[in-house]
Structures are given as C-alpha cells and as structure tokens.
Amino acid sequence: MLDGTVSPQKESERMTKVDKFESLRDFEGIVAGMDDYDRLPLFAEDEFGRFESKRVHGIVNLNKRSVTMACGKEYPVFGHQQAYGLVLDDLKARGVNVHGRVETIGERTKTTILFNDLKVIKDDKDGVELGISFKNPMDRKTSFKGNGYTWRQFCSNGAGVKTLLPQLEINEQHTSTMLHRLPAVMHQFIEESLKQTNMLQTLVNKSMETKVVFESREQFEATMSLEFDGIAEKHMKAVMANLKTLEPTRWEMFNATTYYTSHSAVSMDIQERIDDVAEKFLNVTRPINPVPILRRVAPLIPQ
Known about the structure:
This protein is an alpha+beta fold. The chain has helices spanning 24-32, 80-94, 178-193, 197-209, 217-227, 233-240, 250-263, 268-282, and strands at residues 16-21, 37-46, 49-61, 66-72, 98-105, 108-123, 126-137, 143-152, 157-160, 169-173.
C-alpha cells in the first residue's frame, strides 16, 4: 500500500529533464534508468482505520513512491521502460545509427530519435533530419503515441509531421490487447519511417518556393490568429516576432513556429498543438488565404 497524491502543479512549471544520446547504446542506458511503475490497490483511511477500495487501483511510480493516477483494477501498466524497450529492440535488430533526446516532465516522456543517414539538404550549411518521436504519459488515461519527426540542424528546431506523413503514426490506447499488438505495429512504423527521405525533400523544396503575401502587418496578424485558433494569443505573437517580412515563404513560417516550440518553456500539450500549426505551414497543398481587412471610410461632408 502506498499513500500519495499528485501535485496540481502545471506541467509547464515542472522541471524538464533532458537526456541526449548519440547511439543506440546510449539510448539503451537511458531507457534502463527510467522510472518503474506498477498498479496497486488504493486505500482510504479515517480515525477508525484503513479500508481498501474494491474497484479503484492506482498507477504508482515505484521510484518516487507516489500515486500518479487512479485507474481500474484491470488497467494495464505500460511504463516508459516497456514502451521504449519495444522501440529499442526494433532499432537494434535493424542495426541503424541514431541520435536524439529523451525529455521527462513529471510522469510524461517524449523521445525523439533521428536517423543519422536520413537527411534532406537545404544548402551546404543547413539541412533537415528525419526521425521519429514518441510520447508516453503515466499520469492520465491516454495513449502511447508515435509520429514522424523533422529536425532542422541550423536552428535546432523540431516538429512532428502527422498529417503530411499519415502512414507514420502510432496511437495505441493503454489496453491489455495493445501489449500483444504493439511489436508488429512498431516494426511497420519504423519500416515506413526509413522510406520517407524523398517525400520530405519534396515538401521542403516546395515550402521554400511558396510565399504568402500580406498587405499589412495587421492582415498578417489577423491571418495568423486564425491559424492559431484555440491557442493562446501570446504564442502566436511570439512566433510573429520572428517573421519580419510581409512576404514570408511557407518554409519561413514553419521554421519560425518550430523555433518557438523548440526554444521556449511550453508544455508538451501546447507544443503538440503548435506543432500541428507548423505542419500546416509546411503543407503547401493547403492554402493560406490572407484575411480581408475592412477599413471604415469617413463619410463625405457636404460643402
């Protein structure tokens, strides 16, 4: 039995732990050091004693000795070691060379893996690396997610590519059946990831050639507000601070957006939503139409 509560502290206010790796061996060491989890019965206690719930259990971080969330007694435990162990096993079987990073915020992890030999060249000083990214939360009932990922070397900007490369997606709810199904799903996911270099090169080339022309800064901001619909305005304005021209290319819009999420202290949830906006900027098949600005004209005064 463990007594414990989860702090209401916001995710964006927690310390982010970042572990970088330059090889599969490094990654394996990071995975081995991740926290362990288990599902245990929860108890209530009053002045007359302690009694166990018949239906409610809790996911427990065994390293921190804390309850991360309540769950049913059949809810599967799919901890970080188990999740990334599947990724690691498949990559080791392929013998690929990788590098990347693992970010841990509270009970949530985000792992970015970049393939050393998959790169799109922009020029002799810059390029975009292709890889995969995974998220596994242990403090809420959600899913283990994976998608394609891009990383611009010059500015160290990263972003997911979920809709542009829809075949590169994993979204597996934490269920008992996923434990049997996921190894095959993971194998196919990584297999497809290794085939996408040409597709990514085309996306980057077209985005660098396509401009969006605005008449004024006012029109630019109004249009960006629509693109960032449902996201706090402060994030949109921070992105616009890095876009000085009224004729940005779609690549420049993508890069300014990913620069913000890659270099600012935003939560994983907000980062994911802003990355979705960035991906729309890269997708030139989706038009960005400047918002018309209506200006009031003063009535003529008869002489």
